[in-house]
């Protein structure tokens, strides 16, 4: 059993049913409850793309004057095992539900529900032997719109042949408007710690993620809308390699994705402060920035989404066929700004790949392959003072004295610049090593010079070797 699936499936299932026992109050609840169950189960069917079968079943509804009791089974199956969680919710009838009225809240709502989900015996071991998955509260307005919050208790999973995963208490805030089909979702998590079988430790601190999304019936697996994310620190540590660690501090990201006819248009950015540590020595690499844009076939991306859940699935033949279909339908990928900047300067790369529609069966030569590229470019700039500063710090981290570290750094970067100049791949001055490659319908230009047809293949091969040697690949 994959460790992350236990937590992932539970959270995914709870996200559908945590809105509680009913959309309606009193007698309306009984009349409409089966409709609610059907909606919930239709949403849960989407988990089938990830190898998870889930269903709300065995619903029992008992109506009282001021409240109703709702009991149900939330059954999830994956990796050959079945987990049956028991819902035991208390639904307070509107217009002034007693649980809100007792706290002085006089705003009328259709109903307010207190969620309580019990764990089965075969899951309690992952929750420190607690009885509850968690608990929450939801309010349903007369329009059917829902707002709520659900807290999941800490999770800890450990298997000798897999590693371990630990999550602190997590808080899920959500809202849904059935009229517009818009959803808002927020996750707050103080700590996640994952240790794999090779003792590589990943520690995440202070996660906050918000998503405003709208569902689309034609492309149900696409996350359409806007998101913001922040992480106080993401630290990756190799406990068997001299306690080497890499940290991304104060990470933040924003992005959006929307449909334009049969295309999905996505953009996003991210930034973080990168730091390396070896034993007690720390090295600040600088400020990392990234800005991405993508325009691809919506159906292909919808079909590919389930394969993104694991490297093994993404490497499968089926996923490869989907990727090929996406590439055949004029994809566009743009890295507007990928950079690392320290106090001495900025190193950056930009990439724009735009393809024509093409039939892979008609690509018979290298020239015909080049002609599918339109207005594509790769633009890179390495700042020499910035690289020297970085190399000096790396040498100091390896134990060299300041003066020796500086001298070694200058020699290393000087050799890099000489190699770039000798290869004719880049233009070199006192401050920068620069390279710009453009490909447009079969024509290749490198640093302002049109590359003759007989030199194109060799130039591109040498270019990739050169970029690899400079750490750009």
Could you characterize the architecture of this molecule?
The protein has 473 residues and is α+β, with helices and mostly antiparallel strands. It is built from eleven helices and 22 strands. It has helices at residues 3-17, 27-44, 98-101, 121-124, 298-304, 311-314, 317-327, 366-370, 384-397, 402-423, 453-469; strands at residues 53-63, 67-78, 81-93, 111-118, 132-140, 146-152, 155-159, 163-167, 170-177, 182-196, 200-214, 225-238, 244-260, 263-278, 281-297, 332-342, 345-354, 376-383, 427-428, 432-440, 443-446, 449-450. Strand 20 and strand 21 (443-446) form a beta hairpin. The longest helix is centred in the C-terminal third of the chain and has 22 residues, at 402-423. The protein is globular. The two termini are 34 Å apart.
User: Structural class of the helix and strand makeup?
Assistant: alpha+beta
The shape is globular
Helix content: 25-40%
> For the report, how would you describe the main beta sheet?
22 strands, antiparallel
Mean pLDDT: 82
Q: Please tell me how large the radius of gyration is.
A: 27 Å
Number of helical elements: 11
Uncertain residue ranges: 10-25, 466-473
Number of strands: 22
Distance between the termini: 34 Å
Q: What share of the residues does DSSP label as strand, in percent?
A: over 45%
Protein name: DUF945 domain-containing protein
InterPro entries: DUF945 (IPR010352)
Pfam families: DUF945
């Amino acid at each position: 059993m994959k460790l992350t699936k236990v937590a992932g499936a539970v959270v995914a299932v709870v996200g559908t049913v945590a809105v509680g026992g009913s959309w309606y109050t009193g007698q309306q609840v009984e009349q409409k409850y089966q409709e609610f169950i059907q909606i919930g189960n239709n949403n849960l069917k989407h988990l089938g793309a990830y190898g998870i079968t889930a269903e709300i079943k065995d619903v029992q509804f008992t109506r009282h004057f001021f409240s109703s009791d709702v009991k149900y089974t939330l059954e999830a199956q994956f990796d050959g095992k079945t987990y049956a969680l028991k819902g035991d919710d208390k639904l307070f009838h509107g217009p002034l539900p007693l649980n809100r009225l007792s706290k002085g809240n006089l705003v009328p709502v259709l109903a307010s529900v207190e969620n309580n989900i019990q764990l089965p015996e075969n899951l309690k071991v992952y929750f420190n032997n607690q009885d509850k998955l968690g608990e929450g509260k939801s309010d349903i307005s007369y329009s059917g719109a829902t707002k709520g919050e659900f807290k999941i208790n800490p999770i800890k999973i450990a298997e000798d042949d897999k590693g371990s995963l630990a999550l602190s208490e997590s808080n899920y805030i959500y809202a849904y408007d059935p009229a517009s089909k818009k959803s808002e979702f927020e996750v707050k998590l103080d700590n996640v710690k994952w240790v794999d079988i090779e003792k590589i430790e990943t520690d995440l601190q202070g996660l906050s993620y918000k998503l405003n999304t709208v569902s689309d019936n034609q492309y149900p697996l696409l996350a359409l809308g806007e998101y913001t994310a922040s992480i106080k620190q993401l630290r990756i540590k190799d406990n068997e390699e001299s306690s080497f660690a890499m940290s991304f501090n104060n990470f933040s990201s924003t992005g959006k994705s929307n449909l334009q006819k049969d295309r999905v248009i996505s953009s996003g950015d991210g930034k973080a402060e990168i730091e390396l540590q070896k034993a007690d020595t720390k090295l600040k690499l600088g400020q990392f920035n990234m800005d991405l844009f993508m325009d691809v076939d919506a159906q292909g991306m919808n079909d590919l989404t389930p394969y993104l859940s694991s490297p093994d699935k993404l490497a499968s033949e089926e996923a490869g066929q989907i990727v090929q279909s996406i590439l055949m339908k004029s994809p566009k990928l743009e890295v507007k700004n990928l950079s690392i900047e320290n106090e001495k300067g900025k190193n950056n790369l930009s990439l724009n790949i735009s393809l024509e529609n093409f039939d892979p069966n008609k690509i018979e030569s290298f020239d015909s392959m080049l002609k599918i590229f339109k207005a594509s470019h790769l633009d890179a700039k390495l700042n020499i003072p910035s690289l020297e500063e970085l190399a000096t710090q790396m040498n100091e981290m390896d134990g060299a004295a300041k003066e020796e570290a500086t001298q070694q750094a200058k020699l290393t970067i000087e050799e890099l610049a000489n190699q770039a100049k000798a290869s004719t791949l880049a233009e070199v001055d006192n401050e920068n090593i620069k390279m710009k490659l453009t490909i447009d319908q079969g024509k290749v230009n490198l640093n302002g010079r049109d590359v003759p047809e007989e030199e194109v293949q060799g130039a591109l091969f040498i270019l990739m070797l050169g970029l690899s040697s400079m750490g750009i690949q």
